[in-house]
Structure formats: C-alpha cells, structure tokens
Amino acid sequence: MNGCSRCKPDIQYPCRWQYRLIGEERTTILQAVQAVVNLEACTVSDGNVSSGGRYLSVNVELTVTSEEDRLDLYNRFAADPAIRMVL
Length: 87
What we know:
By secondary structure, the protein is α+β, with helices and mostly antiparallel strands. It has two helices and four strands; from the N terminus they run βαββαβ.
C-alpha cells in the first residue's frame, strides 16, 4: 500500500460480505434484517453481548454484487431505528 488514507480496498465482486449489526434486542434486529433482505438469502449468527448486557450483535453474511450494493445494504441497515451501529 502506498500510504494513501483514501485508497479503497481491492474487493472482487460478487463476494460474500459480513455486516455486524448492534442493537438492544435480537428480535427487533432480525425484523430489521428481514425488512432489508430475504433471511433465506443470508447467514445469520449471534455475536457478542456487551458486558452490561444492554447491547448485542448479530452477524449477517450475504453475497453483494457491487460496491453500490454493499453500501446500499449498509445504509439501509443503519437507517433502521432498531440498529444502533453497523460494522
């Protein structure tokens, strides 16, 4: 890498991509996922629970076809009020 802080990673599409969704309730996070994508088209797994037990994460892995598709999914997940953060 040439040290450029704005350089994009070289991602070959289509590819599998994982989003980590953080929220307060697993059920509402899964409802948010279902509103964006077909649950049958992705792999959903439980992530971590915060030390205080208030927040939890759900991992969603699916195939993205382009950078636009990847960013659109990110934005749609992030827009749902049940999801506090998308990683």
